[in-house]
Amino acid sequence: MTDRHAKGMEVRRAVLGDAHVDRAEAAKTDLDAPFQQMITETAWGTVWASEALTRRERSMLTLALLAGLGNEEELALHLRATARTGATQRDVMEVFQHVAIYAGVPRANSAIRIAKRIFAEGEGAA
């Protein structure tokens, strides 16, 4: 395990929670192990581990990109992560207003629908 992988796992657990990471690790197979290693080292151990942005800021950027690109499954995951990143429900709605203007109202509508469900379930931002 590289230092970047170890840091990536630390940050991944801090942002997504132990339960999610434990499930992902348990589901890992020989087929996707190299992919899992790559995202742990690059997304989590490099990008998310950087101190150039706060976790709240990085969370908001991630939500905007996922919503704008229509990646709904990952969007739900990162909406749940707002409970640990410091992004509030107001932050999330501000992000989705930007998505509406720059990526389209249908993308924002879908993102808001998902956020309402996640928040109603008591997950994500307070």
Description of the structure:
The chain has 126 residues and is an all-alpha fold. The protein has two domains: 1-52, no CATH class; 54-125, AhpD-like (Up-down Bundle). The protein has helices spanning 3-16, 18-27, 33-47, 55-69, 72-85, 89-102, 105-120. α1 packs across α3 (33-47) and α6 packs antiparallel against α7 (105-120). It comes from Roseicyclus persicicus. InterPro entries: 4CMD/NDH-1_regulator, AhpD-like, CMD-like, Decarb_PcaC. Residues 34-116 form the Carboxymuconolactone decarboxylase-like domain. This is 4-carboxymuconolactone decarboxylase.
Give me the secondary-structure topology.
Blueprint: H1 3-16, H2 18-27, H3 33-47, H4 55-69, H5 72-85, H6 89-102, H7 105-120
List keywords for this structure.
single chain, 126 residues, mainly alpha, AhpD-like, 7 helices, 78% helix, globular
Task: Please outline what is shown here.
By secondary structure, the protein is mostly helical. It has 7 helices and no strands.
Quote the beta fraction: under 5%
- What order do the helices and strands follow? HHHHHHH
Q: What general outline do the C-alpha atoms trace? A: globular
How many domains would you count in the coordinates? 2
Q: Do you know the CATH architecture of the largest domain?
A: Up-down Bundle
Question: In angstroms, what is the radius of gyration?
Answer: 15 Å
Low-confidence stretches: none
Structural class: mainly alpha
If you average the pLDDT, what whole number results? 96
How much helical structure, as a percent, in the residues? over 70%
- The CATH C-level name of the largest domain is Mainly Alpha
Number of helices: 7
Q: How widely separated are the two ends?
A: 35 Å
CATH homology superfamily name of the largest domain:
AhpD-like
